[in-house]
Amino acid sequence: MSSSWIIIGIIVLLVLFAFGAYNRLVALSQRVNQAFADIDVQLKQRHDLIPNLVETVKGYATHERGTLDDVVKARNAALSAQGPAQVSAAEAQLSGALGRLIALSEAYPDLKANANFQQLQSELSDIENKIAASRRFFNNAVQEYNTGIQQMPAALFAGMFGFSRKEFFDLGESRGQLEQAPSVKF
C-alpha cells in the first residue's frame, strides 16, 4: 500500500513540475511576442516617416530617381514582411536604401540646409535608436526563451508542449554597416 502512495506522489510531482515548466515557457514565449511587437511599433513609425523624407528629397534631387525608387520599393517590401526573419531581412534592405538617400544630402547643399529635411533626419535618427534598443530587448527575450526550452528538465516537456526554437532579429550580411548610427550632419 505504501509503495502505491509513493508512485502516486511521484506522478503528482511530475505533473506539477510539467505544469510549472509549461507556464514558465508560455511566459517566456509571450515575452518574445511582446518584444517583437515593440520592434513592429518602431518599424511602423519608421515606415510612416519615409514617404515624408522621400517627398522632401524629391524637391531637390529630381534626377536621383533610382535612389528614391529603391527606398520606396524597400519600404513596401518591409511593410509586407512577416515574422522576425523576413522582417529583419527587409529592414536591412530598407536601412541600406535609406543610407543612400541620406547621403544625397551631401551632394545637395540646399537640401542639407532645409529645415524640414533636418527635422526628418533627426526623427529618423531617433527612431533608429529606438529600433536598436527594441531589437536588443527582443534578442534578449529570444535568448532566454531558447535557453528555457533547452535546459533540463524543461527540455523533456518543451517539444511535447509544442515549444520550438525562435530566431533572433538579425541584421544579416550588412551588420557592420547597420550597427553604426545614422550620421546626421548640418
TrEMBL record:
Stored InterPro entries: LemA-like_dom_sf (IPR023353), MamQ_LemA (IPR007156)
Record family assignment: Belongs to the LemA family.
SUPFAM superfamilies documented for this protein: LemA-like
Record keyword Transmembrane helix present: yes
Source superkingdom: Bacteria
UniProt keyword terms in alphabetical order: Membrane, Transmembrane, Transmembrane helix
Protein name as annotated: LemA family protein
Alphabetized PANTHER family for the sequence: PROTEIN LEMA
Pfam families assigned to the protein according to its UniProt record, in alphabetical order: LemA (PF04011)
UniProt-annotated location(s): Membrane
Stored Gene3D superfamilies: LemA-like domain
Protein topology in the membrane: Single-pass membrane protein
Keyword check for Hydrolase: no
